[in-house]
Design a protein that fits this description.
This protein has helices spanning 9-15, 28-39, 56-71, 115-131, 157-163, 168-173, 182-189, 193-197, 219-223, 261-271, 274-277, 315-335, 355-367, 382-386, 413-431, and strands spanning 75-78, 84-88, 96-102, 139-144, 206-214, 227-233, 235-244, 284-293, 303-312, 340-347, 351-352, 374-377, 392-397. By secondary structure, it is α/β, with parallel strands linked by helices. The two termini are 42 Å apart. InterPro entries: Amidase_Cbmase, Bact_exopeptidase_dim_dom, Peptidase_M20, Peptidase_M20_dimer.
């Protein structure tokens, strides 16, 4: 792999690393090197990455990690949705303990969101290999495809396929940023729609799934703790809203009688922030993606499409917020005498983390002198889809200034490695249960 010398990630990670954290078969330098090698794939000049789901870049990142998995002694397989599963036999057969995350990114993403969870899960295996530890139960490291959703405006695609949480209708409606169907995207990726459907596995083969992720907030930074415990995962819903007007010449079309889709969209967009306030303290709604057609400086916009990301840690208020925003969009379209198209691309149930698992995570944290900090996750994760069927747990690693989905995303190597030690202890405890 050619090295991009404008990427100082490895040196920055190692600069302040505390080598006393290298013990029990866990090595910070290996994590720093692997984070750096992944950061080279889809590298963007501002320091982050661009690795959309089902892209060549995501596939290249998976291929690299698959090599590391095989070198660690894992049996590696890939399903029709591009999910990677690497399995280590235990002393006994039966249900496996699993951990992992994703390697795709948002269009202007950072180097830790996703890869840290994958490398943490793999480092546990590396530590066992070095120390000669053989787990009582099978262990799996999983990489899920297209977690971020930048491909289809609908996230968690891989874990939805693995759990069977995506319907035939949802599959048929998916269109990517080039207007291609799921079937067309899969063909480019090297799979088929039938193979994608066949990716559904019996999730009950897993006893427990635990995911490590950077905190997308500042609670750990404020508490001055490296690692925290997730109490629950907010369920995301993605509402796609289109306003359809009439194109016309910007100079020759009188203001009276215009059907400007962008004016209607702007009114809707401006009204959105007021709705979550009337729902709950944890409800949020965000428009981060907006497309204007035909997007010409001297053309009245014919169509505007936006994606409204709606979340809450409880399902009922989240769904009430969806209904209110749908009603508002329809009301504004009628006011401007233009049609609207509204569809819900994603609706995932919030997932609480069982108190027993939180207590066991707390016990692992305390072994390393960490005071447990309990944090609800406003962001969605693949653990949500698995959590509909099996127990799941999550650990957050401290993130500088709470920044994520941004090239400035940063977690120190000390905090990353501390998180791996906690994960290893928790998994080994789960192996004995």
């Amino acid at each position: 792999m050619p090295v991009n010398h404008n990427n100082p990630l490895y040196e920055e990670l190692m600069k302040d690393y505390d080598n006393t954290l290298d013990h029990s078969g866990i090595h910070g330098e290996r994590i720093a090197r692997r984070l750096f090698e992944l950061s080279q794939i889809g590298f963007i000049q501002v320091g982050g990455v661009k690795r959309p789901g089902f892209s060549n870049e995501e596939k290249e990142a998976k291929t690299l990690v698959k090599k590391w998995m095989a070198d660690a002694g894992l049996t590696v397989s890939e399903d029709g949705a591009g999910n990677i599963t690497a399995r280590l036999k235990g002393k006994n057969s039966g249900r496996a303990i699993a951990s992992g995350s994703h390697v795709d990114s948002v269009p202007n993403g950072g180097n830790f969101d996703g890869p840290l969870g994958v490398l943490s899960a793999l480092e546990v295996v590396e530590s066992w290999k070095e120390t000669g530890y053989i787990p009582e139960k099978p262990y799996e490291v999983i990489i899920f495809s297209d977690e971020e959703g930048s491909r289809f405006n609908s996230g968690l695609t891989g874990s939805q396929a693995m759990t069977g949480a995506i319907s035939e209708q949802e599959m048929s409606q998916l269109r990517d940023y080039n207007g291609e169907t799921l079937e067309q995207v899969l063909a480019h990726y090297g799979s088929t729609l039938e193979a994608f459907k066949a990716a559904k596995r019996n999730i009950n083969e897993l006893e427990l799934f635990v995911e490590v992720h950077i905190e997308q907030g500042k609670k750990l930074e404020k508490a001055n703790q490296s690692v925290g415990i997730v109490t629950g995962i907010a369920g995301p819903a993605w509402l796609e809203v289109e306003f359809i007007g009439e194109a016309g010449h910007a100079g020759n079309t009188p203001m009276i009688g215009r059907k400007d889709s962008l004016v209607a969209a702007a009114e809707f967009l401006q009204s959105i922030p007021e709705f979550p306030k009337g729902i709950s303290d944890t409800a949020v709604a965000t428009v981060g993606k907006l497309d204007v057609f035909p997007n010409g400086a001297n053309v009245i916009p014919e169509k505007v499409r936006m994606l409204v990301d709606i979340r809450d840690i409880k399902e009922e208020p989240r769904d009430r917020l969806i209904d209110q925003l749908v009603e508002q969009a329809e009301k504004i379209a009628a006011k401007h005498d233009i049609p609207s198209n509204i569809k819900l691309n994603t609706r995932i149930k919030p997932v609480p983390i069982a108190e027993d698992l939180q207590k066991r995570l707390a016990a692992s944290l305390e072994k390393f002198g960490i005071t447990p900090t309990y944090i609800p996750s406003g962001a969605g994760h693949d653990a949500m889809n698995l959590g509909r069927f099996i127990p799941v747990a999550m650990l957050f690693v401290k993130s500088k200034d709470g920044i994520s989905h941004n090239p400035k995303e940063w977690s120190s190597l000390n905090d990353c490695v501390t998180g791996i030690h906690v994960l290893k202890d928790f998994i080994e405890d789960a192996m004995e249960k």
